Amino acid sequence: MEQYNPHKHHRRSIRLAGYDYSQAGLYFVTLVCQDRAHLFGAIKDGIMHLNDIGQIAADEWLHTQEVRDNVVLHEFIVMPNHIHGIIEILYPKESSNIVGALKSPSQTIGAIVRGYKIATIKRIKELESKGEDSKGEDSKSEDSKGELQFAPTAPTAPTDPTREIIKSLAYKIWQRNYYEHIIRDEKAYINISNYIIENPLNWEEDQLNTL
């Protein structure tokens, strides 16, 4: 699995040449930590510094498009207590010969988000219990197209502060709901992409900043 590298994964054009925004395949999503707890690290001088849990959150986000061939990830950022990201779903073109060709349950944003949350929680559990189980290779999903289509990667050794955070949470990492917004034109796409990129710089004024 490719590991998150902030220098690599934010070097891209934020314009989509020739993209048809009318197909409703681009979504801006926000996932927030339970109680808005600052679980993923801290921002210093406008730069997000991931802790062990934050690294898992970033790595599993990237892993999403590795296990789902109908998903393309665009700009994203892991913040201290939430994640912003743009997800593109590649729906099959409509066909008069195929009933329900446009969508299936595994192709929805809801399924993708649920699968991502499950994968991160599983990795975090493995992180906390690494001393008991060093294998770190759990079974993959039985359903190759379902919402559990994630193969958590091998955990790294947790630091003591991370262990305490995990225990105090009882694995309630995420708020139950999430925010989604369909991106319908290029102006919105560019504005949202810039918002994501600049989010660490604007952290002091962020409404999700509880400090």
TrEMBL record:
Region described as Disordered: 129-161
Low complexity bias: start-end ranges: 151-160
Protein name, as recorded: Transposase IS200-like domain-containing protein
Protein's GO biological process: DNA transposition
Composition bias type Basic and acidic residues, residue spans: 129-146
Domain of life the protein comes from: Bacteria
PANTHER family per the UniProt record, alphabetical: REP-ASSOCIATED TYROSINE TRANSPOSASE
Lineage, top ranks: Bacteria, Pseudomonadati, Bacteroidota, Flavobacteriia, Flavobacteriales
InterPro entries: RAYT_transposase (IPR052715), Transposase_17 (IPR002686), Transposase_17_sf (IPR036515)
Transposase IS200-like domain sequence ranges: 22-199
Single Gene Ontology MF annotation: transposase activity
